[in-house]
Amino acid sequence: MNEPREKEPVCLRDMTREDTDRIVDWRNRESVRRNFIYQELFTRESHENWIRTMVETGRAVQKIICERPDGRPVGSVYLRDIDRRHRKAEYGIFIGEEQARGKGYGTCAARLMLEYAFGELSLHRVFLRVYADNEPAIRSYEKAGFQREACLRDDVYVRGKYRDIVLMGILNPGEAAED
Predict the structure, then answer these.
(1) Which of 115, 127, 52, 46 is nearest to 82 (CA)?
(2) Helix/strand/coil for 133
(3) What domains lie within the chain, and their CATH numbers?
(4) Phi, psi of 22, deg, nearest 5
(5) Which residues of the chain have pLDDT under 50?
(6) pTM of the entire structure?
(7) Quick one: DSSP state of residue 178?
(8) Burial of 69: CB neighbours in 10 Å, binned 0-12, 13-18, 19+
(9) d(C-alpha 110, C-alpha 62), whole Å
(10) 144-173 pLDDT, tens per residue?
(11) 123-138 pLDDT, tens per residue?
(12) Are 59 and 90 spatial neighbours (Cβ–Cβ below 8 Å)?
C-alpha cells in the first residue's frame, strides 16, 4: 500500500489478555460463528489456552482491528500455525461488531496483516480456508491479493451437512520468483 497509514479506515494493534472477554463475545455471535469451520462455542478458558499454547509460543499472532480515528475495537485478525521452516501461515479474520461490516474494514485489515506477515515475519506464503458459498468474504480476500487455489469438495461436515472449502493463498510480493 502506498497510501499513508492515517488514511486507512482501520489499524491493527496487538491483542492483549484484556481483550479476552471481547473476543469470546464476538466469536460466539452467530453472525461470526457461522462462517468458521470450528463451530464450538468459545470460553474464557479456551481463549486463554489459545494465548498460552499458540500466541505465547510464537505459533500464532493475533491483532485487534480498530476503527480510525477513535480506535474502537471492531474485530480481530490472526496468523496461525506459523511454520518458520517453510515460511507460511494460515490467515483468519472476523469482524465482531455488526455495524462495522460491509465498510471494507476486512480487506484493509487483511492488507495490513499481510504487510506484517511478509515484512515483520518474513513469511513466503499466507493461505486461508473459506466456505465456498461465502462470496462476500472471497471477494474481500481477492481485493486484498489472495488468489483461489483449490476447491475442496465436501471437505468439512458442519451443522449436519458437508461443505465445500475454497483454499486461497498469496505469495510474498517482495520476493523474487525462483527459477
Answers:
(1) 127
(2) coil
(3) 5-171 (3.40.630.30)
(4) -65, -45
(5) 1-4, 179
(6) 0.91
(7) P
(8) exposed
(9) 12
(10) 999 999 999 999 999 999 999 999 999 999
(11) 999 999 999 999 999 9
(12) no
CA distance 154 to 101: 28
H-run or E-run covering 110: helix 105-119
Q: Which cell numbers hold the place of 58?
A: 510464537
Q: Please provide residue 83's backbone torsions phi and psi, each rounded to the nearest 5 degrees.
A: -110, 100
Cell of 64: 485487534
Beta-sheet pairing, 125-131 with 88-95: parallel
Look up cell 506464503; give the residue.
125
Identity at 34, one-letter amino acid code: R
Strand order from edge to edge, sheet including 161-171: 10-14, 61-67, 73-83, 88-95, 125-131, 161-171, 147-158
DSSP string, 19-65: GHHHHHHHHHSHHHHTT-S--SPP-HHHHHHHIIIIITTTS-EEEEE
Residue 98 cell numbers, joined: 455488526
